[in-house]
Amino acid sequence: MAAGGCGRVAFDPAITPGDGGSDTSDGSDGPPPVPRCGPGETAGPFTTDFENGVPMFGSIYEIAPARMDVFAGQLRGRPAMAPGSNTYAGFEATVGDYRSRRAFVEIPTMVNTSGCAQVAIVIQDDDVVRYAELAQSCNLVEAMTWAGTTQTVHGSAPYDAALHRWWQLRSEAGTLSFELSPDGVSWTTLAAIPTPAYFDDAYLELSAGTYMLETQPIGEARFDNLYDCTR
């Protein structure tokens, strides 16, 4: 369950849309190319690699003692072992129309999955507490929607750090797909539902936090290479 944003902080200049990091397609040794938006798509305004800090199109919220910052060119979420519920920190993009676009992000570092700290990518109604969410908690990755406190789980799978390195929420032709990928290119659909009506006026959120008392070290989550691809 992702917490709603509160308390915004200052942010740094935006990354140029479509800048996904180093590309070694010239055949030289090095890391593989970072995926980009595909044919017929445009890198939308909510695209960043976090290399220059928190981009101008969004902001960070923190519910203490959870923390969120940009560290070493990645968005870093640090949940904490707090006894209270819904102790989250996150990054929120500004409001947009998500009915014909896809948002995907790399999660190279995950919290300790032997506990139930949660990491999520969310598209949320800007007016009412309704959202679609792809989240890992208790070593399970789930596709779900929320309306207030009512949760509907549409699909789930045991979390696999290699197979589930990239997460995507894709809205196309009236269908919202919750998808996972090892490389950001080949995607597996975890669930698909009709695109919620509120996607015409929604915002994207990346979050990490706890919703129950954790009794072992949580670690941290890292987000990188956030893409906003429009048609």
How many domains in all? 1
Unreliable residue stretches: 1-28
Total DSSP E strands: 15
Query: How much helix is in the residues?
Result: under 10%
CATH topology: Jelly Rolls
Q: Compute the separation of the termini in Å.
A: 30 Å
So how many helices? 0
Coarse morphology: globular
Beta strand % = over 45%
Order of helices and strands: EEEEEEEEEEEEEEE
Radius of gyration, Cα only, in angstroms? 16 Å
CATH top level is Mainly Beta
How would you describe this structure in keywords?
single chain; 231 residues; mainly beta; Jelly Rolls; 7-stranded antiparallel beta sheet; 15 strands; globular
What does this structure look like?
The protein is mainly β. The chain has strands at residues 42-43, 58-62, 67-71, 74-78, 87-93, 101-109, 118-125, 130-137, 140-147, 150-158, 166-172, 175-181, 188-194, 202-210, 221-230. The strands form 2 sheets. Strands 1, 3, 4, 6, 11, 12, 13 and 15 form an 8-stranded antiparallel sheet that branches. A 7-stranded antiparallel sheet has the order 2-5-14-7-8-9-10, with no helix packed on it. β7 and β8 form a beta hairpin.
Could you write a compact summary of the structure shown?
The protein is an all-beta fold and 231 residues long. The protein has strands at 42-43, 58-62, 67-71, 74-78, 87-93, 101-109, 118-125, 130-137, 140-147, 150-158, 166-172, 175-181, 188-194, 202-210, 221-230.
